[in-house]
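Handout, page 2. Input:
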Amino acid sequence: MADPAASLPAVEPPRPRHVAIIMDGNGRWAVDRGWPRLVGHRRGAERVKQIVRACPDLGVNWLTLYAFSTENWKRTAEEVIGLMRIFARYIEREADGLAAEGVRMRFIGGRERLDGRLQRLMTGIEARTAANTRLNLTVAINYGGRDEILRAARRLAARIAAGELAEPSEADFAACLDTAGQPDPDLVIRTSGEMRTSNFLLWQSAYSEFEFTPTLWPDFTPAHLAEILDRFGLRERRFGSA
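Output:
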């Protein structure tokens, strides 16, 4: 007798709607090859383009990338200046492609310390891609989770002082974060083998799944991402219910 279950359609494992990635290992990738660290950062920027283009076909609607932390200012002036130039070049070169491919690009983090030209480029591409919906790309530059929470607390305190709120809720606080209006990440990935979150999306990742891979970011391909997404589908997410 035929098994009735055999005629049922296969159930696709759930895919994360929002993936956040700590892109680590660019400098190490270059140093391991005897090259300057900035070569690794440039190669990492090329990898960003590939991952961004792959996400919609992999079922990812939101992608958040950790590009430069509030702690990264401690690096050498040469590396910091080089990174800022790479960010600006990426925006300039990818603006047309992102707009044409339906990608909405936004930035989180404090902008006041960034170069004026970079700030203008950031504001410009945000405005240009604001109506796009195929993929929501958020890039964290001069971002730190603790800094974001502190800034959000100040905004919330100002609203309370103005009489707008009496007893603020979690939703009220979340509305003061840089990521206001965006869903929390379902999955946070860190490349390079380091097993810490490094001050990234501290509030938003409270119930995220985590994946730590030894692959350095310049070597992290869409195939690597697809494998991790498949593993995500095998996890049971209970959100404290059991």
